[in-house]
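Example (one chain per record):
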Amino acid sequence: MAVFRSGLLVLTTPLASLAPRLAPILTSAARLVNHTLYVHLQPGMSLEGPAQPQSGPVQATFEVLDFITHLYAGADIHRHLDVRILLTNIRTKNTFLPPLPTSVQNLAHPPEVVLTDFQTLDGSQYNPVKEQLVRYATSCYSCCPRLASVLLYPDYGIGEVPVEPLDVPLPSTIRPASPVARSPKQPVRGYYRGAVGGTFDRLHNAHKVLLSIACILAQEQLVVGVADKDLLKSKLLPELLQPYTERVEHLSEFLVDIKPSLTFDIIPLLDPYGPAGSDPSLEFLVVSEETYRGGMAVNRFRLENNLEELALYQIQLLKDVKHTENEEDKVSSSSFRQRMLGNLLRPPYERPELPTCLYVIGLTGISGSGKSSIAQRLKGLGAFVIDSDHLGHRAYAPGGPAYQPVVEAFGTDILHKDGIINRKVLGSRVFGNKKQLKILTDIMWPIIAKLAREEMDRAVTEGKRVCVIDAAVLLEAGWQNLVHEVWTVVIPETEAVRRIVERDGLSEAAAQSRLQSQMSGQQLVEQSHVVLSTLWEPHITQRQVEKAWALLQKRIPKTHQALD
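Predicted structure:
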């Protein structure tokens, strides 16, 4: 069976009957489409008969909103699919709406196949319904030439075509501003302008619910605040957040796809209120269960500034049925970032000058990140570990390759009485003095790099195929030229300060000063191939390292496995 990159799923069954069948329908569609799946709702439409079916308006009721949430929630198990429910024909009860477009709507990923749940009694793939389906799809949307068509029935369901819809209401997922009890068939009110906000990192199905509800409510303009700068500091694994411009690009494509008639104003969100707190033209704000209190705070802020309150629409969080022990139980970008830990983020370096049978990892991280504990875990899995600090001690020792040059550069007053270099005195001499520090690093870094190359030769002699260079200054020193991959260990700065204070007996100010003198976790990650974190319990860290190690074994070129 052919697999298509993008597809259009036309759903014609009344929603109450469709909901129980949605899971098998999505599973059938996921077998045929491997990237983008657009969904068009036209409940009650027939694809039989001589007349070409026309797209008609679908009344936006709470049942429709609940169904959209239900569909995105059900699609979350098919994580390879980028599902997008198209909203052009879904209309609120207001009279100021423009008419349905008569032109074909362009889509970012023109469908290569159109699918439908429409049930025909013969179930044949050589059915005139398929021709009607293609004509309908191409009359509504820009599709690829030679558009394929597939009738999903009866693959997703067995039995007679139901005569009456199953009257089973969907669970309520949208809580409107009004305290009046809502019913499934109750029409949803439309507004001219509204707002929604979030981080929108790695746009996922919970984001899509939030955005879709906002798009249905708004008839002219939707202001979308995208968290940036200070609002990102409290996020889990902020180093792995997509850049602001990348998040906006994905967000914009999705929004224009699902409702091109709206004007979208996407702006950076730099404080908790954003434009929702100050724009008098806004009428509603869509929030999640998690951010509802923030919405209430926005309304208090507006009242304090003589602005009308916004109508709040609260969206239920989507449950993540696949979450693991240390992840949130909701669909969350934080969990997605956690799942990136241990994965290869960019292609490895080619290093033909390194020993052909040795694959070299450079392991780095800010002070207190726990990189040395990661190095020991990798050693336990079979890696040969080179500790750059130990190499530095060897180089400083009397008779070592750095001893004489350092003494000549900094004087004999850095020596203990027994002639050993006093590293504390030397450290105080260079700390905060960029010129003195450069003199020291210009001596030490090339020497440590040479010693590391000698250690690599020893690893080859011992028959090791993976070598790990544990080095806090790996990137500052330019030692990425010695490795195939850079692995970085990250933790929040507050946790790093706590660990340094506990481990080294420093004050908080001294610990922060130490961190400020180093590259930040964000700067390290930008040049890294793999990211790990020791933020959780030791067994979680071990699981991460084992995952990273297993993935590494799969991608190590065969030349590096010759001595295995």
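Caption: The CA atoms of residues 77 and 322 lie 8 Å apart.
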